[in-house]
Design brief:
4 strands, alpha/beta, 4 helices
Length: 137
């Protein structure tokens, strides 16, 4: 689940360009989600916001709309758009909702691991235009 949170944070960070005064907001698209899915998704967004430094949140004037989609490779976590949207892979939603994702170890793609730390989910800075999916190689 840490990798999913890291991807959510990375996607949010990649969508942010300008600094301003109102602050960062992550807004969940609730259409098509059950109440349990909405609650689990909102908890994920809340946790992601808590992981960001307060000054970072304060300085960003951006609303990022976060939703779940089926239109994504099975092994992708999500994908950021250039217009303040973050789509997460709906294949991960069931595990988030029932809590099983918290106990699963998600292998991180090799291109976003920090050198010398195979378990780190830190994304490379140049991955901003790629889907959140492992690359061949």
């Amino acid at each position: 689940m840490r990798c999913a949170r890291a991807w959510l944070l990375t996607g949010a960070l990649l969508l942010l360009g300008n600094t301003a005064h109102a602050g960062l907001q992550l807004q969940l698209k609730t259409e098509g989600l059950t109440p349990a899915q909405q609650q689990a998704s909102q908890a994920l967004l809340d946790e992601a916001m808590q992981a960001l430094p307060p000054r970072f949140i304060e300085q960003l004037d951006r609303r990022i709309v976060v939703g779940w989609t089926d239109d994504m490779p099975r092994n992708a976590y999500g994908q950021a758009s250039l217009v303040s949207e973050l789509d997460l892979n709906r294949n991960l939603l069931a595990g988030l909702t029932d809590g099983s994702a918290a106990s699963k170890k998600n292998p991180s793609p090799p291109w976003h691991r920090a050198p010398g730390n195979a378990g780190n989910c830190a994304a490379r800075a140049d991955s901003h235009l790629r889907p959140f999916a492992p690359v061949a190689g």
